[in-house]
Design brief:
Length: 119
């Protein structure tokens, strides 16, 4: 199983980035996907989620209206579009997969990608 994030980088206040997370080794289209982030010396926090079909999305209040989660099940990839970035969005962003397999709840994590926003 692999989740590989990409697209992070350094951006100025108000800028945009598009993160991607490529999945392999599990039935991607049956798993809900989420993005989390962790800033220095802070706990990991949930950012956004999308159901396995992409029909339902949800966002943390802190990013609602600025971030958009989407997925392409044909490409086994989930995306996070980050707009109107603020310095407080600086964190390592992780993608997460959660689904049921053989009666067990399984969850997988990527290694993270750094997003840094300068003021």
């Amino acid at each position: 199983v692999q989740l590989v994030e990409a697209g992070g980088g350094l951006v100025q206040f108000g800028g945009s980035l598009r993160l991607s997370c490529a999945a392999s080794g599990f039935p991607f289209s049956t798993y809900d996907m989420r993005w989390y982030r962790q800033a220095p010396e802070k706990e990991r926090e949930w950012v956004a989620g999308i159901t396995n079909t992409g029909s339902i999305t949800d966002y943390a209040d802190s990013v609602k209206g600025r971030f958009t989660i989407s997925r392409d099940n044909a490409k086994n990839t989930v995306y996070l579009q980050l707009n109107s970035l603020k310095p407080e969005d600086t964190a390592v962003y992780f993608c997460n997969a959660e689904g049921a397999a053989m009666g067990f709840l399984r969850t997988y994590w990527g290694q993270g990608t750094q997003v840094s926003v300068s003021s």
